[in-house]
Amino acid sequence: MSSRAPVIWWIRRDLRLCDNPALTAAAESGAPVLPVYILDEQDEALGAAPKFRLGLGLEHFGQELAKAGSRLILRRGKALEVLQDLIEETGAGAVHWSRLYDPQAIARDSAIKQQLKEQGVEVISHGGRLLFEPWTVETKAGGMYKVYTPFWKAVRGRNVDSLLAAPGKLAAPDSWPASDGLADWHMGAAMRRGADVVARYCRVGEAAAQARLEDFLEDSVDAYKARRDYPAEDATSGLSENLAWGEISPHRMWHQGSAAMERGSQGAEHFLKEIVWREFAYHLMYNSPHILTESWREEWQDFPWSKKITPQVQAWQRGQTGYGFVDAAMRELYVTGKMHNRARMIVASFLTKHLMTHWKIGMDWFADTLVDWDPASNALGWQWVAGSGPDAAPFFRVFNPSGQLEKFDPEGAYTGRWIAEGQDTPPQTALDFFDAAPLSWDLSAGMAPAEPVVSLQAGRDRALTAYREAREER
Ligand SMILES: Cc1cc2nc3c(=O)[nH]c(=O)nc-3n(C[C@H](O)[C@H](O)[C@H](O)COP(=O)(O)OP(=O)(O)OC[C@H]3O[C@@H](n4cnc5c(N)ncnc54)[C@H](O)[C@@H]3O)c2cc1C
């Protein structure tokens, strides 16, 4: 116990004790540390699955803080007002936090910083979420990168901050301010019956994330480059969920991945390249935030994508398109809150091309259903597939979901795992979908397999005709 004024550690997407510059700085100040999570309007607006997953992360992290002799204080409301209240209640003299990079968070944080500084409170923001702060990576001409490969070449040889140890016991304040109860926040309310199912597939917390990284680097990274596109295999790290909530730092992934590369591990460089795709997504979001809301390339603004939730779009959301790869992927998403990267590309292509539906409809669905939802990677992923984004796949490259299935799921292991219809004894994974899906969808494992919602040839022809016409009009 100490009678010194505490410092506030405002926790955001950094639910970890190791390698956390904001926490390290707060602890090294020598003052008692007050860990606080604020459920403000930006968190209230999260989609169902990310909000639920945040709740799981907070519950776990509260326990970890308790083991370190500390506590997680939960408050709900406008972030500035909550911080001001806490400063008044505790006499805190400083606030530390890890930076976020989406435009809403930047606007909120800048205003809070200015206001608190005017009140005489020290405010220090820290890195930790990204390997490279977006403004530190520039082309020779001084602009942003718009293409991935030169971005990768610009950063791959850079120094990456070394890992910080967890601070050990955290000094506690003389008395703890009141905290909300997490259960009263009802973080899983919008998940309804899906919550229990999705929870079984989540990997929550720092220790679990670190253990997974070690297993992946030990067992799978050698084959990563060759096998990462096969959705039935456990060939990728699966760490996006933990990165999204800051349960692991990209620095740890980078350093341990680099060490594997130095040991001669095949595939490790490719793994580092994928981590840098995430950095590239943040670089783009920071420098061109309209990537979140509009077609990044201006000439795509008027592309005649439909914005209606038609019965075909509903079939896409519900894994009922009649195409195995698409349906397996959309069910994997609904059951686990995650989806394999190749499957994300295929379902995004199917929606934006075969169903000629705006990428925003898909992006919003992912924002509601992914536990690894990340604004930058989601927007880049959708616009990359749709053709409207930076360094995007050309629109005329239309994935054929049946051809992709033959190539990447030749034995039917992925479809068998997620689609129950037509199987005598479906696995639990496939049955879980019917426990997670809303009752209003009226689906059951015994129903007939879905009929194709569009002919692949007709859908492709329609998309390519629209593309040709749009180009002619430009
Ligand atoms: C339409 C679409 C939407 C997407 N939405 C998201 C999202 O909301 N959140 C999210 O984290 N990723 C998103 N991605 C990127 C990618 O699909 C996931 O990061 C990946 O599937 C996560 O699995 P993993 O952790 O096993 O990846 P690994 O293959 O193990 O890769 C390691 C890490 O690299 C990063 N990474 C890998 N591929 C990409 C990529 N294409 N773009 C950006 N970063 C990447 C991730 O942080 C990942 O955890 C999206 C991709 C597409 C095509």
Keywords:
474 residues; DNA Cyclobutane Dipyrimidine Photolyase, subunit A, domain 3; Serine Threonine Protein Phosphatase 5, Tetratricopeptide repeat; single chain; 3 domains; Rossmann fold; five-stranded parallel β-sheet; binds flavin-adenine dinucleotide; mainly alpha; 5 strands
Question: Can you offer a commentary on this structure?
Answer:
The termini are far apart. The protein has three domains: 1-128, Rossmann fold; 130-162 and 195-287, Serine Threonine Protein Phosphatase 5, Tetratricopeptide repeat (Alpha Horseshoe); 298-473, Orthogonal Bundle (DNA Cyclobutane Dipyrimidine Photolyase, subunit A, domain 3). The mean pLDDT is 97. The protein is mostly helical and 474 residues long. 48% of the residues lie in helices and 5% in strands. It is globular, with a radius of gyration of 23 Å. It is built from 21 helices and five strands. It has helices spanning 21-28, 41-44, 48-67, 79-90, 103-118, 148-155, 194-200, 206-219, 224-227, 240-244, 250-262, 268-287, 311-317, 324-336, 341-354, 359-369, 375-386, 401-408, 413-418, 428-436, 456-473, and strands spanning 7-11, 33-39, 73-76, 94-98, 122-126. It has a five-stranded parallel sheet, sandwiched between helices. Residues 228, 236-240, 243-244, 274-275, 277-278, 281, 341, 344-345, 348, 366, 370, 372-374, 377-378, 381-382, 385 line the site of flavin-adenine dinucleotide.
